[in-house]
Amino acid sequence: MTVVRVTAPGRVNLIGDHTDYTGGLVLPMVLERRTVMEGTATGDGLVRVSSADESEPACFPIDIAEPESVEPGWARYVAGMVREMRLLGVMVDGFEAHVTTDLPIGSGLSSSAALEIAVGRFVRELVGSDSVDDVSMAVAAQRAEHRASGVPCGIMDQLCIAVGRSGSATSIDCHDLTFRHVPIPDSIEVDVRFVVHRKLVGSEYADRVADCRRIEEIVGPLRSARPADVDVLRDDRLRRRARHVVSENQRVRDAIDALGNGDVTELGRLMTESHHSLARDYETSTPVMDEAVERLLREPGVLGARMTGGGFGGCVVAIRHRG
Ligand code: GLA
Question: For position 293, what pLDDT does the model report?
Answer without folding.
Answer: 98
